[in-house]
Amino acid sequence: MLELLKKLCLLDGTSGSEDNVRNFIIEEIKGFCEYKVDNLGNIICFKKGKKQSSKRLMLDAHMDEVGLIITAVTSDGFLKFDTVGGMDASVLAFKTVEINDILGVISSKPVHLLSKDEQKKPQKVDALYIDIGATSKEEALSLIRLGDTAVIQSDFTVMGENIKAKAIDDRIGCAVLIKLLKEKAEYDYYAVFSTQEEIGTRGAKVAAFAVDPDFALILEATTAADIAGVSDEKSVCNLGEGPVVSFMDRATAYDRALYNTALNSGLSVQPKRAVAGGNNSGAIHLSREGVRTLAISLPCRYIHSPSCVANVNDMENMIKLTKYMLNGILSGEIK
Predict the structure, then answer these.
(1) 126 and 174 fall within a common domain
(2) Domain count, the chain
(3) Burial (CB count within 10 angstroms: exposed 0-12, middle 13-18, buried 19+), residue 245
(4) What CATH number did the domain enclosing 101 receive?
(5) Residue 315 and residue 299: Cα distance in Å, rounded?
(6) Which DSSP state fits 295?
(7) Tens digit of pLDDT for each residue in 66-108?
(8) What is the pLDDT of residues 100-156, one digit of tens each?
């Protein structure tokens, strides 16, 4: 599982540019399920099980990650950019990025050159540039084009029972889906590797319309703030205490029966202690006549940064909970 996740996290795939991730996943799942790629680049899979269920269930994980997109070039060859998805400027300055095999550094004014007023204000994206070593606009444009995406580079490191990597949101969901699709299934189900979640759940919206499920399980990563300086009641969830299930976020009020069933499963699982954020559930649960939906998320510190941290045991328990809910729904044991 760790080796698979490492390969996925080291791939670059910002929203709308998921080709590398999609191609890797297709190579992994070939021969284990039926699949097609739709017009938005979603991979929609059908996994044949030993039995059919009266209910149709869809598993979803998004392939894309947050990143940057080039919007302009200055006369002296520096690149201006905007964020793709929710990235805080505080995690960007002086990081190494890659744009079409071109390496660059996000430049910012050195601290000793900041005025006292500037030092008091939070960094803003529009004050940052990418330095690719070009000395003119013409030279820069010979290497890159406006609209090219940039991804902050990061390695994959094992730290005891934790790992550090970029794009754990949501390559962990993709890794879980790949693992499940390679195993024999008790019941038929659908699995979707979706696009463009970080810019508004767009891929999942059209995939859910195509699949037309009765139930959906969204496999995600979610913010863990169990760090120094944050009170217990604001920590949201904790590494090492199992996958997270939400009762509500800013886009979805989750199916209460599914939520309670997950908490009472006897497996390692924790509730998300905040109403915050959102994920593909927001689009999926509103598809057609409505879809009964639950998000199963991996606790992740420093999410949407190049140094996300997650727990290995939580990953294994995320797989167990997903299987439990999948089989329970399709067997009719979970009403």
Answers:
(1) no
(2) 2
(3) buried
(4) 2.40.30.40
(5) 9
(6) E
(7) 999 999 999 999 999 999 999 988 889 899 999 999 999 998 7
(8) 999 999 987 666 556 666 666 677 888 899 999 999 999 999 999 999 999 999 999
Task: Say whether both 289 and 312 belong to one domain.
Answer: yes
Residue type, 140: A
Residues ≥6 apart with Cβ < 8 Å to 11:
20, 21, 24, 167, 171
Q: What one-letter code names the amino acid at 137?
A: K
Query: Position 240: which residue type?
Result: G
φ and ψ at residue 299, rounded to 5 degrees: -60, 135
The side-by-side arrangement of strands in the sheet containing 189-194 is 34-37, 43-47, 189-194, 57-62, 215-223, 292-300, 244-245, 270-271
Q: Within this chain, do residues 133 and 268 fall inside the same structural domain, yes or no? A: no
Give burial (CB, 10 Å; 0-12/13-18/19+) of 122: exposed
Q: How many CB atoms lie within 10 A of CB 289?
A: 7
> In terms of residue numbers, what domain contains 116?
67-152
Asked if residue 30 has pLDDT above 60, the reply is yes
User: Of the listed 197, 220, 241, 316, which one is catalytic?
Assistant: 197
Residue 34 known to be catalytic: no
Query: If 0-12 CB within 10 Å is exposed, 13-18 middle and 19+ buried, where does residue 307 land?
Result: middle
Do residues 99 and 144 make contact, with C-beta atoms less than 8 angstroms apart? yes
Query: Taking CA 208 as the corner, what is the angle to CA 46 and CA 280, rounded to the nearest 5 degrees?
Result: 110
Same domain, 185 and 296: yes
